[in-house]
Amino acid sequence: MLTAKAFCAGSLGLLQNDTHKDPCLRGFRGVAYSIRTIYSHLAMQCSPTLDLTFHALADGTRRSMIHVLAKGETRSASELGRQFRSAQPTISKHLKVLEEAGIVQRKVEGRIHQFRLRRKALEQAGRWIARHQAFWEGAVDQLDRLLAEGAIDDRG
Fold it and tell me: Where does residue 113 fall: left (phi above 0), alpha (psi -120 to 50 degrees), or beta otherwise?
């Protein structure tokens, strides 16, 4: 599978060559440098918290639990277990992953474990996604403009 980082690195090697035979790709040195600088800056912002959040969101059952808890009510592990028709150990494992990611908060009342949604981790993931989406949309728009300019130069 080609990752965004590998794609970016491969594309930049091609685009940095100002004497490329394809006229559409000539003169991309500055663009390639800008893309590499911006992408490298974003890629270097690794966050163990984000890793845990995206790992937690990778499972459909956990996303469904978040949806239930997003209604604002606290729920016990047994309530969630009944709702999802899963065994208690399975529900406990899912809740532990969500708790470690900071997505839910546990409150113990005697033998009952109550869970409520904490929005901070989800908001942080949303901001990360928005930043990367804006970057890639901007890069694609810029590439479209440059390719269109190259096509006009070829005709004229």
Answer: beta
CB 74 within 8 Å of CB 41: no
- Residue 46 carries which side chain, given as an amino acid letter? C
The model's pTM is: 0.61
Domain range for residue 17? 1-45
81-123 pLDDT, tens digit per residue, is 999 888 999 999 999 999 999 999 999 999 999 999 999 999 9
Query: Are residues 52 and 6 part of one domain?
Result: no
Find tokens 């080609």 and name the residue.
2
Report the candidate in 102, 97, 129 with the shortest Cα–Cα distance to residue 118: 102
16 near 32, Cβ under 8 Å? yes
Helix axes 29-43, 120-155, angle to 10 degrees: 170
